[in-house]
Design goal:
Elements (H helix, E strand, L loop, with lengths): L1 H18 L1 E6 L8 E6 L12 E5 L17 H7 L6 E6 L7 H14 L7 E6 L1 H12 L6 E5 L16 E6 L7 H14 L5 E6 L14 H8 L18 H4 L10 E5 L8 E3 L3 H12 L2 E3 L2 E5 L1 E3 L6 H7 L4 H8 L12 E3 L1
Parallel strand pairs: 1-9, 3-4, 3-5, 5-6, 6-7, 7-8
Antiparallel strand pairs: 1-2, 2-4, 9-10, 11-12, 13-14
Helix pairs in contact: 3-4
Length: 347
């Protein structure tokens, strides 16, 4: 009997370790560096090592020694709310001083050794102070990075030329009073002084202030854009086909799923299996369920999207991973049809 039970138990442990969402706190694991979180997605498989890795660098408000603060906004909070991100995420915490690229890299290397990933698909994203950190880090370790996204930051890099070699998206609100858009423009001017910038996207987000850019962490388009790049691409190009605009950002909190996120942190009360389906998600789930309808044109499992100001068929197609042609056929529309606010588009 023991010979039968043991293999079953080992199999259970293996399946659990591969297919459960886990968020793990690490303190004092890397000497003279940062404390950090590591998120392991359900899809992670250490044997194949095909999972991408994202490095998230937070802003000034999350600095300190309370590691739980790093979960207040950004990818880790997006996971808590139910956003699906199929990547190992490394999220260090700065105690206060500016981000140190060398110390960040020590944390990244530590994580890569223990969580094998696709090293050609390593991405960096950060906001405010983390936007500075993203550009400073990327200017040093550009040969390791598949793509980077810096939100409402700037840079104090010693050299900006390496930034010209990676797909880079710099995003800044025109109404930012905390870190003026001129800080991003200075970085771009320095990059242009090094030569051509064919891999750069500069998104000037009209009317957006500093804090509003945090919505970008919750958009599926953000991760779709990052994951569309790889260092193994035969020709390094930047994807310009995934727009992120103020209109897009209005839907940052739409269509979250529900699930269970296992938080492993012995120093906090969050060290239990906690449902990601918090009250806001339960409300969202009810809304999503109400979108399941049946009529003469659609099957019982069909859903619809309610058109808001500025939305197009192309936007709906991207959002629900379909095509304009299929949307037109299902809704008896033409590609040139004018959509009305409140109109239901079945997908």
């Amino acid at each position: 009997m023991k010979k039968i039970v043991l293999p079953i138990l080992l199999t259970f442990i293996t399946v659990f370790s591969v297919y459960s969402q886990k968020l793990i706190a690490y303190r004092d694991s890397v000497p003279d560096s940062y404390n950090f979180w590591v998120y392991v997605p359900e899809t992670y498989d250490s044997v194949s090592a095909t999972t991408p890795m994202i490095l998230f660098l937070h802003g000034q408000s999350l600095c300190g020694t309370n590691l739980a603060n790093v979960r207040r906004y950004g990818p880790l909070d997006a996971l808590r709310r139910g956003r699906k991100i199929d990547a190992v995420i490394v999220a260090p915490q700065s105690p206060g001083p500016p981000w140190n690229p060398e110390k960040i890299w020590e944390v990244v290397e530590w994580a890569k050794e223990r969580y094998p990933v696709d090293t050609n698909r390593f991405y960096v994203i950060g906001m405010s102070k983390g936007g500075y950190g993203t550009l400073d880090f990327s200017s040093v370790y550009y040969d390791k990075i598949a793509a980077a996204m810096a939100l409402c930051g700037g840079s104090n890099a010693k050299s900006y030329c390496g930034l010209n070699t990676i797909p880079l998206r710099i995003m800044h609100g025109t109404a930012d009073r905390a870190v003026g858009i001129s800080q991003s423009q200075k970085v771009i001017n320095q990059m242009k002084a090094c030569g051509d910038t064919p891999l750069l996207i500069f998104d000037k987000l009209s009317g957006q202030n500093h804090s509003q850019l945090a919505k970008i962490f919750y958009l599926p388009e953000t991760y779709e854009w990052l994951f569309s790049h790889s260092r193994s691409d035969s020709v390094r190009q930047v994807n310009r086909n995934i727009p992120i605009t103020p209109a897009t950002m209005q839907h940052a909190y739409d269509n979250f799923s529900t699930g269970k996120l296992i938080v492993i942190d012995p120093l906090t009360t969050a060290s239990a299996n906690t449902n990601a389906s918090i009250d806001t998600l339960n409300t969202q789930k009810t809304v999503n369920q109400s979108n399941t309808i049946s009529n003469n044109n659609t099957s019982n499992s069909s859903h619809y999207h309610v058109i808001r100001k500025g939305e197009t068929l192309s936007y709906v197609a991207r959002k629900y991973h379909t095509t304009v042609e299929k949307l037109c056929k299902k809704n008896h529309l033409k590609e040139t049809s004018i959509l009305q606010i409140g109109q239901k588009i079945y997908y």
